[in-house]
Amino acid sequence: MTTKGDVLDTSSTRKDYMRRVYSAYWLNKSTRVQSYDRNLCDLIVSVAPAHSRLLEVASGTGRPFSLELVHRGYGMHGVDIADSLVRESYRLDPGILACVGDAERLPFLPQTFDVTFCFHSTFYFPDLPRALDEMIRVTKSSGHILFDIQNAEHPDIALAYARRRSSATGNGRWLRYGKNLAKVVLRRGFPDWSSVVREVPSDWRAIGAQLQSRGVKEIRLLGRDPDANLEPIPDDSHANEFARLLYIGRI
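-> structure tokens emitted (251 positions)
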């Protein structure tokens, strides 16, 4: 499960980084929609009744999911920790009812939404189990939740996480400082001056157990293949073939 209380990575530090620093990256991110994102939108539509109310957790600027889904006729709501991203969401489409808030304390009443989803973001949450409980809480009975994770047991993900932790301390920090300085001088790339370990992968077994203990039904596990397609995972023995895993369940 996502690390909590890491000496390099306290909750307040990670949230402050996402609010003040990393949000600038998302404001300048390419607007091109990836194949994986189009597939995720289609998956949401497959479980969302027409004209139903949807919530995107960590909605950012609304790109690509909220913008696409509001154009398909859904009542879109969003919540993000960075006020700059929420302002940009309103600029792009005022029809997306976005607000500033914390994924671990969603500012909505219980059983408000037909579908609650979160993509590309769970690995930034300091307390993912609490965020999932909140997603379940605000979703209507017989509604659906969907979210993806970085698979902590996939070799590539495990190696990348170890490198992120290493770069946040000792000699790794000074090496990263030099790279950031070069980015500033050459005006190439997005410098990262923080020692925050932002992205933390998750234990998919623990997540599945949590969903079951909260009464989530019809839980499906899918994996993103190299072509960005969503592949159903028939049993646990195949889960670690995928670096990115996707959960879908009915409340």
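The domain at 11-155+196-250 is CATH 3.40.50.150 (Rossmann fold).
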